[in-house]
């Protein structure tokens, strides 16, 4: 197959936003890249891209950009994922934070065994974040702008309501540029190198318009790179810039607006000022997570638009999508928080959690079903018409069918042009796989977790990501297998027991119970598959890799 020919199926990665929780994604990707690489090697698909599309919001966009850049540099997804982990452990993390003085009020209660006092680990995380926010230690993600901005509108003397403590993301920008070079411009098929390149999609929010905007590393049909929305055009022919990436990372209130030029030009570092009076050809952006923190819908739209409007293909490649979520969607009702910090923590997870991707997945399946139904019905109608002997009647039916197919749709494309009913059967594609790997851990959780850059927490998040990734992989392998239904249910039950024990113990298997349940899982698998050893080998290998992490 030619490298420039539309593939039958593509693989996409969606990374959620969540500040320091992005380290969890690094752990997931270490496992996912190794596993998918092994599968592609076994299936003789080594020439294919591991991920054809990498999409992200906020810190997910940062991880996506580093992953894509490192792949382009090394042509190895495994090496790229390893480099991403180093970005978190070597570049962003902070060691040896002294919080003894700051945490003394908690310690005085904890030493008295006050029932409501937080655990030592939760207190470490809480006061570490507080020390960072108080600007008492330097970090590689942000710094506090001085002086703070006083209220010059209402002149409220209460600083807790009126004083604006603004921050600069310059340290984060500098850190990112140590691991990714900009601009990032890719193409489906790079003619110079004769290789396919991954597509990078970064999502942000235009503050004035209140809409999600996609920055795309792939060119448009005319060869240019640009984002078009609400009568605005942002041009970036050379590729996605650091300005576009920082726009996706600009958390409102904590940072001021991110400035993105509509034409290719330099934007000065004016993040610690609120003066916009002299700026021209600038749009203002906030964190993409405000509108779409798990940008599956935007990914699906971009996929459809590219193959219809750029490549002009009648058949869009189907998609396998891997989604990594860092904000837990659910919480055990028995641990619902009663303290202020805990309530705010849960609130943030609901706001920035995966609120739409399940519905988007359902709609993608529904649209594909309608399209497949329409295609089959059209073929049936043509066949039925061909059986009509009366030529005049046959011609009349053919004309009526063509009139129906030429009817304009209410829906419009990205350029506000209506399509035709006939196009409805061309625009659909199947979402073959939608695999979610989601963080669920609330042990020692604090509302400031998105700002916890301590090395202890970063390493913990990476390990959580690895464990959750292997759990999801093994679970999927069992579900997708043709093992007898009864045996399959038993295996899933054993796997869930292992994972529940691991999560209950904060991803530490000190009592070896998780290891025990995984051993039981392997025994049950081998017993059920005695006559089909080859089929179970793949699952056993995954379980052994899982066990190696917790050993």
Write a compact overview of the structure shown.
The chain has helices at residues 22-42, 59-74, 77-92, 104-110, 120-133, 159-162, 170-179, 242-248, 296-310, 340-352, 357-386, 391-405, 455-480, 485-504, 513-528, 533-550; strands at residues 9-15, 53-57, 143-144, 167-168, 189-190, 195-196, 199-206, 211-216, 226-229, 232-235, 258-261, 282-287, 318-325, 408-412, 418-420, 431-438. By secondary structure, it is of the alpha/beta class. Strands 1, 2, 7, 8, 11, 12, 13 and 16 form an eight-stranded mixed beta sheet that branches.
Task: Please describe what this structure looks like.
This protein has 551 residues and is an alpha/beta fold. It has helices at residues 22-42, 59-74, 77-92, 104-110, 120-133, 159-162, 170-179, 242-248, 296-310, 340-352, 357-386, 391-405, 455-480, 485-504, 513-528, 533-550, and strands spanning 9-15, 53-57, 143-144, 167-168, 189-190, 195-196, 199-206, 211-216, 226-229, 232-235, 258-261, 282-287, 318-325, 408-412, 418-420, 431-438. Strands 1, 2, 7, 8, 11, 12, 13 and 16 form an eight-stranded mixed β-sheet that branches. A hairpin with a 4-residue loop joins strand 7 (199-206) and strand 8 (211-216). The chain is globular. The model has no long low-confidence stretch (mean pLDDT 93).
What topology emerges from the helices and strands here?
Blueprint: E1 9-15, H1 22-42, E2 53-57, H2 59-74, H3 77-92, H4 104-110, H5 120-133, E3 143-144, H6 159-162, E4 167-168, H7 170-179, E5 189-190, E6 195-196, E7 199-206, E8 211-216, E9 226-229, E10 232-235, H8 242-248, E11 258-261, E12 282-287, H9 296-310, E13 318-325, H10 340-352, H11 357-386, H12 391-405, E14 408-412, E15 418-420, E16 431-438, H13 455-480, H14 485-504, H15 513-528, H16 533-550
Parallel strand pairs: 1-2, 1-13, 2-7, 13-16
Antiparallel strand pairs: 3-4, 5-6, 7-8, 7-12, 9-10, 11-12, 14-15
